[in-house]
């Protein structure tokens, strides 16, 4: 988080109320039981928009044969 906000934060040990900080999203996602691509894309840590699931599918076609079938412990790249 410090690296994403080093234009605002001069000391990584001090942040103050009222600052608006950028919180970067995840770069990869480890699939858990009950996940599906729409649900992953809809996560605030990913895109916060389930309709963006095709981006995850396209970036991980090498391990996703069917976008309706993903498995626990698969690790997907989250394109930014």
From TrEMBL:
Lineage top rank: taxon: Bacteria
Pfam families named in the record: LysM
Domain LysM: 27-78
Gene3D superfamilies per the UniProt record, alphabetical: LysM domain
Record-linked InterPro entries: Bact_Kbp, LysM, LysM_dom_sf
PANTHER family in the record: PHAGE-LIKE ELEMENT PBSX PROTEIN XKDP, POTASSIUM BINDING PROTEIN KBP
UniProt name for this protein: LysM domain-containing protein
Species the sequence originates in: candidate division TA06 bacterium B3_TA06
């Amino acid at each position: 988080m410090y690296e994403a906000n080093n234009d605002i934060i001069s000391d990584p040990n001090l942040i103050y109320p009222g600052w608006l900080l950028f919180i970067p999203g995840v770069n990869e996602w480890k699939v858990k039981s009950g996940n599906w691509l729409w649900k992953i894309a809809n996560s605030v840590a990913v895109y916060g928009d389930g309709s963006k699931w095709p981006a995850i599918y396209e970036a991980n076609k090498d391990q996703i044969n069917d976008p309706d079938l993903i498995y626990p412990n698969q690790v997907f790249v989250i394109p930014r």
